Amino acid sequence: MKMKPVVTNIKVDELFNFTDKVVFITGAGGVGRICAKGFGLQKARIVLFDVKDEVCEKTCSELKGLGIEAAYVTGNIAEQKSVNAAVDEVVSKYGRIDILIHTAGVTKNKVCTEHTQEDVDFVIDINLKGTIYVNQAVARVMKKQNYGKIVDIGSVGGALSHMDVTMTYEASKAGVHAIVKSFANEMAPYNINVNAIAPFWINTPFISHQPKEYFEAVQRLTPFKRCLEAEELVGAAYYLASDASNFVTGQVLFVDGGYTSVHAMSMEELGLI
Ligand SMILES: NC(=O)c1ccc[n+]([C@@H]2O[C@H](COP(=O)([O-])OP(=O)(O)OC[C@H]3O[C@@H](n4cnc5c(N)ncnc54)[C@H](O)[C@@H]3O)[C@@H](O)[C@H]2O)c1
Description:
Elements: H1 12-15, E1 22-26, H2 30-40, E2 45-50, H3 53-65, E3 70-74, H4 80-94, E4 99-102, H5 117-145, E5 148-153, H6 167-187, E6 192-199, H7 212-220, H8 234-241, E7 252-255
Parallel strand pairs: 1-2, 1-4, 2-3, 4-5, 5-6, 6-7
Nicotinamide-adenine-dinucleotide binds at residues 27-32, 50-52, 55, 76-78, 103-106, 126, 130, 153, 155, 199, 201-202, 204-207.
């Protein structure tokens, strides 16, 4: 077993130095796009992976317009061959992958009793199996490097049922949180950290179809009384992708404004103080 180097550096600019790191980002739309900008602006090299060519193209040209080195590969995370081929392409071009930010995901809104086999397969194939395929392919590359940072996007829905219409989605995200723990254990000897970020509702197309009333109710239930902006996830991604988190692995970092911690109205809100 190779020993992990111990980093005791406490200079913040060196801990968070992403210059020339190759960052592979699945999902070129909402959160993926914002993370790509975040890492790109820190001089990392960005490779996007999405099933939609036009989304990749649009985000890529936006990144290039900002002076960021960016490229993309199209494919489907639900298909292992497609993921492996994409990762091979990245390695043949860049020679390595330092950081994975895995954001690609889907949902299907229907009450529990109405989820068809097709609905279940759709969500599980992409969110759960896709996470396994992406982590496997990238971890193989990182093992050879004896270095890597894997950050998967989970969800508050992986910890609790916060909507009665997202059962399969929530099951898939609970699975993502479990996958992270297994990979963390296996990858530690290779100096690879594997963690997840579990966000609260974010203002992206992902939730744009939700009813306005539900949207408002969910915001009332979180201490900060608002949704999350995708940009607010970037700090958590920096942390888990940097040397600042070298001793952190197998964790799920909730970026949820306290939503999963608080299940009561505040005394002030109730007019009691
Ligand atoms: N938006 C939210 O409120 C919210 C809350 C918690 C967690 N999340 C999670 O955050 C992640 C990102 O969500 P988002 O808001 O950016 O969603 P989004 O819909 O804006 O973007 C998701 C991207 O994934 C891509 N994608 C979908 N299926 C794919 C496949 N099979 N192969 C490759 N790419 C595929 C889509 O084309 C899209 O560009 C998801 O995993 C989601 O579950 C989102």
